[in-house]
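User: Modeling request: complex.
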Amino acid sequence: MKKIMSFAALPLLALSPAFATVPPTPPDPAAALRDAALHGDDLAWDITEGLTTEVGQRLAGTEAEARARDWAVRRLTELGFSNVHIEPFDMPVWVRGAEHAEIIAPFPQSLVVTALGNSGATPAEGIEARVVGFNSVEELEAAPDEIVRGRIVFINHAMAPTQDGSGYGVFGAPRRQGPTVASRKGAVAIVVRSVGTDHHRNPHTGVQTFGDGARPIPAGALSVPDAEQLQRILDRGREVRMRLTLTPRFTGTHPSGNVVADLPGSDPSAGMIIVGGHLDSWDLGTGAIDDASGVAIVTAAAHRIMQAGQPRRTIRIVWFGAEEQGGLGGRALFEAHHGRDHVVAVGESDFGADHVWRVQHNLAPQNEALGARIRALLMPLGIVPGAGRASAGEDLGPWARAGVAAIDLDQDGTRYFDYHHSPDDTLDKIDPAQLRQNVAAWTAWLAVLANAPEEIGGVPPVGGGE
Amino acid sequence: MKKIMSFAALPLLALSPAFATVPPTPPDPAAALRDAALHGDDLAWDITEGLTTEVGQRLAGTEAEARARDWAVRRLTELGFSNVHIEPFDMPVWVRGAEHAEIIAPFPQSLVVTALGNSGATPAEGIEARVVGFNSVEELEAAPDEIVRGRIVFINHAMAPTQDGSGYGVFGAPRRQGPTVASRKGAVAIVVRSVGTDHHRNPHTGVQTFGDGARPIPAGALSVPDAEQLQRILDRGREVRMRLTLTPRFTGTHPSGNVVADLPGSDPSAGMIIVGGHLDSWDLGTGAIDDASGVAIVTAAAHRIMQAGQPRRTIRIVWFGAEEQGGLGGRALFEAHHGRDHVVAVGESDFGADHVWRVQHNLAPQNEALGARIRALLMPLGIVPGAGRASAGEDLGPWARAGVAAIDLDQDGTRYFDYHHSPDDTLDKIDPAQLRQNVAAWTAWLAVLANAPEEIGGVPPVGGGE
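Assistant: Request completed. Predicted assembly structure:
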């Protein structure tokens, strides 16, 4: 709620009759629903506040995620949705242990570190080794094994904020591939600069998987200021020794699950729309932007459609489990329902709660009129049409790749990676005004597609789908 | 180096001849020194970067502070100052232990906590008790003892940023007096909302002292988001139980010390000027803004005076020890030197490295021409004259109160309490351009007072001095 632009004035200006220099077209009936959300939605805030306060962190496969599922079932039932239930699945569960990093020489001092998902463990007393630094995974790959063997690898980089979040792809490589490459080259451990755009002593965790038979090694992320500090120390050219303690462990196979709720449509033959976000979070913060706000936004929008009267198409809401471990809930849903349920459109909210700035959709050519209606409804919210193909997200991406129409409402990601996967992902990072703009945008497209009299077609699958 | 205004353009504009609508007065000879610092000083950055990188945190009385003293002696000697030496003193040393807070009921979750200075300790396994919340020390004072006894007290508050830092006085009360009041009323522990203006999961420590014979109890600060979370949980009206683990301890009496260096003046009878900041820091961050930048600013300014030729008056630089524990180094210096050395002016830098926005001085009436010169030299740096009496700071305040002239250059404190006493007090919070503006301002007044041909008089002591 700090340092945030206001969206209160924007739609009023854009919708003002004074700007109508061409004969006005009759207002889209979805516009009133959109504007009611923009000016009055409290539900998305209530869900975000409630889930983050009454459950807090909810790491996949833990009892906290189970409490979150119970919370979700209760809330979705209270809201009047139908068929509210949990679809469970099992998963291997990794939990954090002790975490500490210390420069032993030449300048003794503590550094803030956190283990990456699936990190191997050090002994309880830690390990001590010389640090060897690289600027990228490519540089590490190119290094002779002998300068890596027996050492702690450090990969620095400099991710800058981008509105569309595209920095996360390239700058996420040290976290995703670094541990595997370092392990294969004989490193005893790896620490990477957090994949974050802030300058706070809060490290950013995230999943990584040891591939190609690489032996798991301890793998951590330093906070950005600590990574900069280590780089300055390395730059002085002396031998740098670090003691690293990371004692995470796998606790075995435990249940996770997706929470599913329906707003039943009047015409089952018209197909259903699935919207979702994920219920699980990393264990460092309370997962306000990742992704309590996502489940809140899609639920608040569907609830507005419900209150406006029964839609033609069923809207299915899914609060996915275990997204952070690689979209396990999304895969479980797809495997259980693809080919059985007639799904005609999907949409996922999993990029925080800042304002939607862009819409991308991959509606079939015969549905272009629906696309045009959606774009027109979103424009007064300041949302531009994008040229790309919609892909949904980690959880609903399988449907989009399989040829189901997808609508992506892209949130502004400029500050998303200041908080993402860090202890700083907490409720105070949510701006209620921007959250309402999200609900308004989601309400608009759901109102169009849920009630469209025409059929909603499929699109060509990506690479044959999943 | 992020999100910071630039000062590069400001002095150029203010000094531009195009703005001279009255006949120009001859330029003050100190103006060239000032401008050279503004545009070219690297020394303050080098000292700040070096101390925070090569020593890091330096808690008073620990071996880290001793390493910092050695670093300081080496650096001040290299710079060409004379009489570089350590003036040691002993102090009781308190060090941090394990720290963890957890809500047990009704909504189990971890909170981020850190111990306040001189906090008592819980057993290693922590204590568990019901939480009782208050909005202020006054509210706690007014509460019946029976609702406090056996409980963990929580004090919430809402410090907002101020440019002059005046919020720290009133909003610091929960930290300073809260533990004593809670202890006297029978609380088993206290946690306060961090005295900070940020919204990050970094708690702010700081000193507190159990007074009036109050038994030490565990006393911690929650990060601001965690305090807000606890308040939301309390607001739901159910019994809130917390497990708190804080295991700090006193390690006995150990040496601290002040590092002293002189730029000898040509006229010992003219009296000396003492400038300083503090060398010690809290143990959570690397003390970049509190107070590596302070010692760096005063040292860089004195070095510029040295390079311009021997001044009339000696400038003594003091890098104080153990400021954070209550100005122990400042008291030691005053006790050792007051009444012996002829000190005519003091100035202290201990409020970060953001730009100086205001000057206050308490020069004697017969020195008003010097005051006018200083104010005129500072105006092109955007510095306004303040109406208050200069008080120096924690370390040089005893001299100001005793009637020595003092010059306060007040830094902009708007974001100071985002970082102060927290893990986030690191080098990346220092803006080199604003740091140079500080050095320029200090160089200006030192050039005036160190070389003034007139005598610099004393002022009436405050309450009889110390």
